[in-house]
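Repro:
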Amino acid sequence: MTREEFASRLQICRKRLYIAALSVTKNREDAEDALSNATLRALKRYKDFTDTGKFDAWMLTTTMNEAKRLRSSKRYFENADELYDVLDEDGTAEGNVVFFDMLTSAGLGVRCRKVFIMKFLYGYTFDEIASLLRIPASTVRSEYYRGLEKLKKAEGLK
């Protein structure tokens, strides 16, 4: 992967990565920091990255790990309503805010959140997610269905 290809691919998925980081950190500054840190980490290793079909998953994993690290070091939260302002630019704010609010309030683990983000934001199938995350498809399905049960319980549907 060349530097130009890296920059182009990053630009395409940057907003989704930022939204994923924001869903973990709960504030804009930390989400921006997480994405910047993830970008720097990836920039140092992009030449070694050969499987460009897994770029989105690689960057999502790196970004989520950075966001989780920042959140655990800060231990404070701002109002999650600012998600609406961030997401409103492309007209999908209300649905995305509800989606991330549900993921956060249900207490889903990082891997489970990755599965949901890849399934619903990126539109990947279970098999594609398994390939991108390098885990068995049965694990992806398990994470998904366990997450659905937690979401139903958190939303009072079960």
